[in-house]
Amino acid sequence: MDLQQLEDEARQAALKDIQNMLQRPGQLEKVEQYRHRIARKKASVEALLKTGMQNQLDGVRVGLKQLETCMQDVREVRRRMNEVENLLQGVPEVYDALEVVREENTKHSQYATAMENLKHIFNVDASVQKTMGLIDEDKLLNAHQCLADLENSRDDLLYELHKQPKQHASDKITLKRHFEKVDTVSQALEKKLRLILSRTLNTVRKKPTVIVTALRIIEREEKNDQFAVQQQKVTGFLPPGRPKAWRKMILDVLQSSVATRIEGSKLEERTDNKMWLVRDLEILRQIILEDLRVVKSLCVPCFPPHYDIFNEYVKFYHEGLSSYLDTIVRSGLEGNEYVSMLAWVTHTYPGTELMSHPDLNVDVHKLIGTLLRPEHLKALEDEYLQNMQRNYQEWMTKAAETEKVEWFSETVPDQDEHYYHTSAPVIIFQMIDQHLQVTNTIHQELTFKALVMSIQQVEIFGQTYLKNVIELKEHHFRNRDQIKYFTHYIITIVNNSQQMVELAQQMKQLYWPKSRTEHYEDFERLLATFQRIRAHAASYLLEEAFLDMECHFHDLFTVKWLASSMSVDTICVTLDDYFQDYNHLRPNNFEMVINEAQKLLAKRYIRALLSKRLSKPRVECDAITRKIKQEAKRFKLFFEKIAPKISLSDSPLDLITTLSGLLISDIELLVLDLHTLLGSYPSLTEDHLVRLFYIRNDVKAAEVREKVQDAMKSKKAMVSIAKQDCIFKEIVFSDKLW
């Protein structure tokens, strides 16, 4: 440390402080105050330094005294060790001199042990017979005392042999052979204890003292085992037959008796009774509940607390039951046996009917776990779903075949409130509902899986159903005399399809979890399938009707048509005849067919209007227009008559009147009329308009084409405004006018 440097730094710091204190003239008057304050601070610092130095010196003084004391102690220890070393130098000579004494001491110890055990040495056979008699008389405590005396005598003698430096194997063999009957007595006592404890649940009801006696013996043997093991660690000697581990033995016996009791509860096989599994599980429930009540009320006071006998019994029953049920599952289940097993494992066993019963109050999931391993439980659920799927497939295949046979039969379909139907939709969804109600008793996740699988199977049934419907239609239209009640069964198919959709939606509301979105596309696919079947079947109805009217549509807009209303009359009569059958459609389906019939009628009429069959001067077009409007009105009145409750606003038939108005429009204002028309019906093409004006032969073809093309050029691309615009997309001619 550089003192000069420190002093210079202190001076520099002092100068800075003085400069800071005397920066203004008024501060010179306080110089004396500053001096006193600095003096006091200096005195304080000096006092602190002195105190610190004093404390440091005191510490050094104490440390020196302690070091001096330690040096004295080290010298004393060295002196004593030298003395001990000098004393130990004579020990080998003393050891050799005492060799004879040691030999005599060993002999004396052996003689003393022999003297103590003379009674047992010379009376081994008598003691064994006495002990065996006590065991037969169930005087187990006395028998165990005699056995303990015999074992102690044998073990003491063997220990003395073990301590000899020169051991002879023949001596040990001779001694063990002399006491070999002791092992027989021990085995007999163990067998007796096994027998008693295997009947614990019965014995504890009548003679709990017998159980207590057996447990006292076992606890004594456990203490002897512990002493023998501890002695082995010290001396290396372990008596024969130790450790006996009788506590583990009795737990194994109890577990074995539980397993035997579970397996012995089975009274019937599948061949004896279809409800064998339900009966078996119920018997098991009653047995286990009663046994665990006995354990909790009677066994717990008899067994030592560290046995935790109630929880041990719970584990024994859990493991035995798990093994038993696993064997049943591996042997194969059928039908409702899956449900019985799953419901019992997931609800009955851990629920208030068994483990959570107020008398037991066992949280089995927390204490042990599930009765079946998760992977086994999942495999069982998968097997159950596969079995359900096979049942669905078999039944729905038969249902589809039955429906197909009925279509070709000579009988009219069944009616429900005047509507044709079959029982297939209701039966299908009743079957599904029953399965879902059953799975709901197991757990929600299984219900959801069963619901999704059911939806998929119904959708597959729908695909088969649609294929059969198409085959039915093709077969009928090849020869319309073969199927007597074709129309009736197509009406039935339309009604059934609508009912399938409604039942599917009801099922979804009942069982589909609101929080689940996966597999929703399966449900949408199911609805779409049956909506498609419904639409197909409805189109077949109208296709058949319009097939009968085909020749009358060909007569429209001909010379014959101008002179007579026969064609339209026949069309209306034919439709009225068919709609007498269509009244057997359900209201929603009837409305759909009405709308489709109007659309199809309008399309066929407009197609005839645009078919270039008639060409007249402007004067005669007024009469043609009036006739067209009258027929359009007649069509609407017909539909109002057969369907008074269905609104006919924005009917496709209004298109007929709209188009007929163009026939009498002023040719100079035609472009404006076309603009208005194309604004409402963008799908109206140039070919359609040119064909319409073909009826007016007073207008030159080039002029019509020019007007139409002008209107088409100014037509803006737009989304259809009128919902009937799609009709024009469906009217396509293979021959072009221009």
UniProtKB/TrEMBL annotation:
Q: Which Gene3D superfamilies match?
A: 1.10.357.50, Exocyst complex component Sec6, C-terminal domain
GO MF: SNARE binding
GO CC annotations on file: exocyst; membrane; rhabdomere; zonula adherens
InterPro entries found in the cross-reference section: EXOC3/Sec6, EXOC3/Sec6_C
- Kindly give the Pfam families that the UniProt entry links to this protein: Sec6
Gene Ontology BP annotations: border follicle cell migration; endocytic recycling; exocyst localization; exocytosis; Golgi to plasma membrane protein transport; plasma membrane organization; protein localization to cell cortex; rhabdomere membrane biogenesis
* Keyword set, alphabetical order: Exocytosis, Transport
Per the similarity annotation, which family is this? Belongs to the SEC6 family.
Protein name stated in the entry = GL17031
Q: Which organism is it from?
A: Drosophila persimilis (Fruit fly)
